[in-house]
# Entry
Amino acid sequence: MERHAERLIRFDALANFRDLGGWTTATGRRVRTGRLYRADNLGKLAEGTEDWSRFLALGVRTVVDLRHPWEIEANGRVPEHPAVTYHNLSIEHRPYDQAALTPDIEPGPYLAERYLEVAEDGRKEIRRALELVAETARAGDPLVFHCTSGKDRTGLLAALVLTLLDVPRATVVEDFARTDRAAPALLAAWTARNPGRTPAWPSYGRAPAEVMETFLTHLTTRYGSVPGYLTEALSLDTPALTADLRAHLLD
# Structure
């Protein structure tokens, strides 16, 4: 595995806010730091706190929230700010409750299948999210995308972007699996939201590498490649999008 400086951005209220920069591409270039972030629920940020000051100091101009509207209503969204444009693009159309899953369900096959559902159901929203990443890259403005844990929906979008940036598949999987380090904090956050309860699924909050490996294998089997998915399923001009991302997000 590639040696990679820790890109976790420390927040008091967030457990999984990371810079996607620093990874090395197949040709030896590097993803620029300070331009693209992935995160857990930014609704935990509050104005007037050190966390909010830390967030604003990153210069983020665009927030892409991948959650369902009902999740936002229940758990909040990033505070409004004149310098930050907010987009809600709910890429998951078939909600499922991971905490309620039974212990016999293996996370690798199960979550990979859910990711495939998201890739198919959320075509419109995923397309728009990728367009926003490209637009902000051209403008030179930092962007962050997030869901609740910064693991599943966020991990899917991160994998697509990193793949287009020519980051090797093993590294894409490694980036996904780094969320596993946040698993204890994600479990604690669930417990705080559900006092007196424990998730029935032992794998709640976990991000085993097998999940992303299996998802990418299935997506490649179905569409030939990740770019093939973007072209066929999302009707994107994939060569133009790829050229844009590499021109503006690689050193």
